[in-house]
Design brief:
6 strands
Length: 216
Amino acid sequence: MVKPDSSVTHLFLDLDGTLINSLPRLRNIYHDFLSDYKIEGSNQEFDELKTSSIEKLIEYFKIKYSITHPSHHLKKQYEKYLQKHYFKAPLFKGVREFLADAKEKGYNLILTTANQKASAQKILDFHDLGDYIKEIYTPYCFDFKQKNDLFYQKVLRELNLSPKDALVIDDSLEVISCSIKSGLRAVLFSKVTYHPLPCFGSWKILLKQWTNYVFR
């Protein structure tokens, strides 16, 4: 990998749907959880909620579907599904090679995920990726409910960075949009080719063609 721009020192990497192929499992967990309450979810709703923290999910379910159980009970129930189905979600091909090369080139790799920090760490440990990631930031770290422009501004302040110092890599158009709102550069992990932002369909492609995704 050729280091594209000396001003970029940090990569803000998403986890679910970006580093790990977990969205099919998370989608099933969402449907299974709601089915426990005789509620039929939708893939559209899941797509709208997938960047939310588990705390926001529970809050949303309680209000939207009038679920009266205590929040801590619902959270434990959801976490049981996660424990059963989620933590062995596979890496996307090429992720390990990309992370190794990025670290070798001197980038600081920061995990910015809507997941719980302990769960994200468990995923990193399972795939033996802990040595690559310098820090994990989640919305809950700052008492936020989801990744948004305020979240990224907070991460920048925590790391004492300016927006030009970091590049966001995420699979969510909404997250990409809010990161750009914060002045960050961003690359969309997607096979979509018609989006005006730089996109890449696989980590192997990004590793080989990094200079094609440079913001100058």
